[in-house]
Design goal:
heterodimer; A: 3-stranded antiparallel beta sheet; two-stranded antiparallel ribbon; 9 helices; B: 483 residues; mainly alpha; 16 helices; 78% helix; globular; disordered N terminus
Chain lengths: 289, 483
């Protein structure tokens, strides 16, 4: 290295390579990802969050929630199970159909206590001949795909988080630490606004042993003048305000709670499939058919 | 004060070290003084943030000091307040000393430094007021970043001009690293600020850009600026030549080529090729760290220089921290390991080793070497430097290692869904409390550093004031005697 120009050239080459790889390439691959039509779900995915939830996302950012909470579910893989939903009216025919594939299954107890998992299959296509044979015999079966892994087992989500889930977020808050639980699907597990508000005001009032700091500054403690506010938190015991006072959420708290309940990525996608045997409720802001 | 000849006259004839140091005085006062202040303030915010883990309800009624604001205030002040100005100051001095030329336009560099510090102040207020961007290591909002960028460019331009006016034509490894660092930061900073804050890209691409920036800032820029000082001060303090320049060149190349791919965590909801590629980058970024070991060992071998808690100790500890941090980063590329360590305190422990153990310690060594020279007097008390050294060493290890070990424990519990999350969260409290002890020691150490730096600056200003006073009174006396 004889001159500054050589150093600059070397630095340029090295940095432009990673710039092309980690800035340009994801933009080309994901920057214009279109909405998709997931199977078994009404409407398109993803959709922008409702207005109040979008404001709440800014409260979430401003309070630095990302430093303790991740929004990214991991998954180790998927498991595919063949579920017999209905044995049909012709039991012997169903058993005969099962016997073509697995002699062990062709026994009478297989047909009782339905629906139940009768076989683990490698993937969905490999189960198609069996499903067809059962259908010919008058029975109904389907493959249930479910994601596996500790995060899924903690019911932090039904599948791993993918790029699609964040398409309309202005500040993507994926996070790198879990001092608190993952929040990618907190709107699925804790959909009640009241619960979220109580939890923000006094986390240990709803989660025993919670290590989360209370966010009392998001609430207003005020004297009850004429009638108690309908928005006041229903607090009991040690968390209740003194008599004659009430705890009312500020607009920030309300927005943050709306954002938290909007956090749900419970839609199956091609890149992260799962089968929900009960159809998920349509999104609240989906256009009516 | 002697008048300096214009830069054009000094361009070709080498200046004396004394005059070079004198030309650096004002900019380095601004850079190091500000950096020392921000560092001390940063550790105050760090301690405030940690207190929340000891008593969650402590700041329940105070938004400004809540964890989500004190924590980014700590990290931003640490990196933007201390690391970058200190690295720049040391880099400027290295360019001037190694080029045997006086600093070009010291007053403009000083203005640049003040602009930078103003940007840090604006950013700090913005973070405390809730204007944080939400991207880790890039928390300051865009109006602060623009100020920082202008300040940096102003300083970088005159650093480069100093370099082009150098009298010594052949380049020493430290100069390569400083020049690469001068080039690196504006690029990553402008890319990140433009694509995240001015014209935000969509969805997870934001996260990719933010992680790319953070990886380049922590794993490459700090490496470049820190090792530039290491490669200068190791030979300087031991009195032996650098072993060897070729190995240093290898370190520079591999650090730039491989380090730049680090930063994207394995769990990221990004296409698998990106996380895998970043994992490979994490492993390969260990190569420059391995190559630094023979440089340290061979350069120091046979040197009969006692370390005694002085600058040499700081530098050596910095190198070993760099190696350890890079090893931990490389380990996280292994799927068996990152399955456990992702989303835990492990990564933070690794970052702390890199920032506190490697970078700040290396900078302390450089600043303790440079400051007495730019004021032209040995005014630092070796005792206080030694106290700072031991506070820094014990503090860093107590801060970082419990988080590394606690992160592994936390991760092992996190992957076992039979353990309720509340228990996982509680299990991290013990190592976290131990790390708070280390953090407290670092806080004391950082105040000792602040005291040391300002001791030098104040004693210099006092001596200048005394000279001016003596001159003025001498004139007065002659004026009185005359009639």
């Amino acid at each position: 290295m004889k001159s500054a120009a050589t150093v600059f050239l070397a630095a340029f080459l090295a940095l432009s390579a990673s710039w092309a790889g980690f800035v340009l390439a994801p933009q080309l691959q994901l920057g214009r990802q279109p909405q998709v039509k997931p199977s078994g779900v009404e409407g398109l995915y993803p959709v922008a969050r409702p207005g109040l939830a979008q404001q709440g996302a800014q409260v979430y950012r401003s309070l630095g929630c990302v430093h303790c909470h991740s929004q990214s579910v991991r998954q180790d893989g998927t498991i595919c199970e063949l579920v017999l939903l209905d044995a049909g009216t012709n039991g012997p025919a169903t058993l005969a159909a099962l016997a073509q594939f697995d002699r062990e299954l062709a026994k009478l107890p297989t047909l009782t206590a339905l629906p139940k998992v009768i076989k683990i299959v490698r993937d969905v296509p490999s189960a198609v001949p069996m499903i067809k044979a059962l259908k010919a015999a008058g029975a109904t079966a389907e493959v249930k795909v479910s994601a596996q892994g500790p995060d899924i087992a903690r019911s932090w989500g039904l599948r791993r988080s993918v790029a699609h889930d964040f398409a309309y977020d202005e500040t993507v808050q994926i996070g790198t630490r879990r001092s608190g639980p993952d929040l990618a699907n907190v709107g699925m597990t804790k959909p009640a606004l009241d619960w979220q508000l109580l939890h923000l005001y006094a986390p240990s009032s709803v989660v025993t042993g919670s290590t989360m700091p209370p966010y009392r500054f998001l609430f207003e403690k005020r004297m009850i003048t004429r009638a108690p506010s309908p928005d006041a938190l229903q607090l009991t015991g040690e968390f209740a305000p003194p008599a004659g006072y009430e705890i009312v959420p500020t607009p920030e708290a309300r927005a943050l709670a709306a954002y938290l309940v909007s956090l749900r990525s419970d839609v199956p996608l091609d890149e992260a499939p799962f089968t929900s045997l009960t159809a998920p409720a349509p999104a609240t802001n989906a256009p009516a058919k | 004060m002697m008048a300096r000849p214009p830069a054009s006259m000094t361009a070709c004839s080498p200046s004396s070290p004394g005059r070079i140091d004198a030309s650096c005085r004002l900019p380095l006062f601004a850079l190091f003084g500000g950096a020392a202040l921000w560092l001390a303030l940063s550790s105050v915010f760090g301690l405030i943030a940690s207190l929340t883990f000891h008593k969650p309800a402590m700041f329940a009624d105070c938004a400004i000091l809540s964890y989500g604001r004190a924590f980014p205030a700590w990290s931003s002040l640490l990196v933007y307040g201390f690391c970058i100005p200190a690295g720049l100051g040391v880099g400027l001095w290295l360019l001037a000393r190694l080029g045997r030329v006086e600093l070009a336009k010291p007053w403009l560099i000083t203005v640049g430094a003040e602009i930078w510090h103003t940007g840090v102040l604006v950013g700090l207020i913005a973070i405390l007021a809730g204007e944080t961007t939400g991207y880790e290591w890039l928390e300051m909002p865009r109006y602060a970043m623009v100020i920082l960028f202008l300040g940096f460019v102003l300083m970088a331009i005159w650093a480069f001009v100093t370099h082009t006016q150098r009298a010594e034509q052949s380049l020493y490894p430290s100069q390569w690293l400083v020049l690469a660092a001068l080039f690196w930061l504006p690029w990553i900073l402008s890319t990140a600020v433009l694509l995240l804050q001015f014209f935000p890209v969509r969805g997870v691409v934001q996260a990719a850009v933010a992680w790319w920036f953070a990886g380049n800032l922590l794993n490459v820029w700090l490496g470049l600026a820190g090792l530039a000082a290491t490669f200068y001060f190791l030979p300087k303090l031991t009195g032996r030549p650098l072993q060897s320049q070729y190995l240093a060149l290898f370190v520079l190349w591999t650090l730039m080529l491989f380090g730049t791919w680090t930063g994207i965590p394995a769990h990221a909801p990004l296409p698998a090729w990106m996380t895998e590629l970043s994992g490979v980058g994490n492993i390969l970024a260990f190569i420059p760290a391995v190559a630094v070991i023979p440089i340290l060992v061979l350069t120091c071998r046979g040197a009969k220089v006692p370390c005694k808690g002085g600058p040499l100790c700081f530098t050596k500890f910095g190198v070993w921290s760099f190696v350890l941090a890079s090893l931990l980063l490389a380990l996280t590329a292994c799927p068996l390991i990152h399955r456990v360590t992702d989303f835990t305190w492990f990564g933070q422990g690794q970052n702390l080793l890199r920032i506190y153990g490697f970078f700040t310690m290396t900078m302390f060594a450089a600043i303790y070497y440079i400051l007495p020279r730019v004021v032209g007097a040995e005014v630092l008390s070796p005792g206080r430097v030694k106290v700072h050294f031991w506070l820094g060493v014990i503090g860093t290890l107590l801060f970082a290692l419990p988080l590394v070990a606690g992160g592994v424990m936390q991760g092992l519990k996190l992957v076992d869904p039979a353990i309720p999350f509340v228990d996982v969260a509680k299990s991290t409290l013990m190592p976290f409390r131990m790390s708070t002890l280390g953090e407290t020691l670092l806080l004391i150490g950082n105040f000792v550093f602040l005291f040391n730096v300002f001791g030098v600056i104040v004693s210099y200003l006092r001596s200048v004031g005394k000279t001016v006073y003596v001159d003025a009174t001498a004139q007065l006396e002659t004026a009185v005697v005359k009639p």
